Amino acid sequence: MFNNRYTRRRFLKESSLTGLGTVLAVSSASSLLAHCTTVSGEPAVLGGNPLRSKKWPIWPQWNPETDEKRVLEVLRSGVWSRDKVVDEFEKKWAETIGSKRALAVVNGTNALITALVQHDIGAGDEVIVPPYTFIATIQAVLMTGAMPVFVDTDPETFQINADKIEEKITPNTRAILPVHILGLPADMEKIMAIARKHNLVVVEDACQAWLAEINHKKMGTFGHSGCFSFQTTKHIPTGEGGAIVSDDEAFMDKCFSYHNYGYPHGGVIGAVNGGAVIKGTKLRMTEYQAAVGLAMLAKLEMQTERRNENAGYLRSKIKDIPGIVPYRLYPNVTRAAYHMFAFRFRKENFKGLTRDQFIKSLSAEGIPCMSGYAPFLNSQPYLEDAFKSKNYRRMYSAEELDFGKFRQRNQCPENDRLCDETVWLFQSLLLAEKSDMDDIPRAIEKIQNNAQKIRESLKS
User: Fold this and answer.
1) Which of 223, 338, 369, 420 has its CA 20 to 30 A from that of 327?
2) Is pLDDT at 9 greater than 70 in this prediction?
3) Domains and their CATH numbers in the chain
4) What are phi and psi of 176, to 5 degrees?
């Protein structure tokens, strides 16, 4: 899924060990010029001293004194499968998000699958999706038997371009699956208006958007349901884990039943000891995962505030550097989550230095970074493999499964260009002190001042 030899998970693991983080910000040209006069020395990538040797904050952040008591109680209790601690975590997550109900499951991917299935999305249905996302979003659609339909990305915000959604709607369209990628909110008010107009279900992939808001309303609560991830790199890390939120009691009862083998729950009625009443599977969260989640949830508000403060400052410090274009938030965004701090790199402002050379150089200066998602999520082999499966061949016509025509229909040129320009910094960086943010623009300027020398040296 990425343009370099590192996988996303490997990058996040390695960068968390060295304390990598994600950043966003807003600054003035005058302060930028002040920095330019102080950045000098041989680039670290060519053997010079790194601009920064200080470690970034680690991730996950675990304090034994405050975080371990509940976990140890659960482990010593012998009650490890789903019980009261999971119930407590669900209740607190629903309250935190501002939703009536939450259901904890094994991971964010299965949260998406469960939500789609219980919204009755399946064979013959089309689900509108963005191409700038983790593969789990699309795999969830394929697991229902539905057909993903890709809508191009707004390169300024990194989100699905809501202005291009309606042109992809057909009589088979049943749902929109917007993704608040990088923890930056998609244009939900516009998306919900489109959904109402066309009577479509909206499932929010908020797996990277904990506490992000539009007009002070949390991501995950705009659509008919919202899905979250609690995987180790996420802002509420439980190792693996996920959740579904919704105000629809009947829908949530069905999700609960589905995640517990289809046994009766709430409005999903069945006879006592009568066995399963709907098709289901086993997706239950464990008690000790929930105990870890409660410890992490207690820190989320404070950490989110710090990420936002440092992201705003950082964005201000890099936005006027020629060739560096940070993300833009939609005007109605009142808070972002900043799972990644993303900006676009323009090589023409760096003497033709390639993005890979820039990333290598910035990392050498003590600012770990990566390229993020690769282009062509809308045309990779996993899609063709699904189309060749027995189920898809029975559910769709040969014309509908023609992979060449599918790729032609789902081209996303803006997204392809975005993927070739993007640079990511991981979120834990934003948990450092505000003064630490200054090292990032200084490192970028050092590279820019030596761009031609770096390009010529790395090319040989």
Assistant:
1) 223
2) no
3) 8-60+299-373+418-459 (3.90.1150.10), 64-294 (3.40.640.10)
4) -120, 135
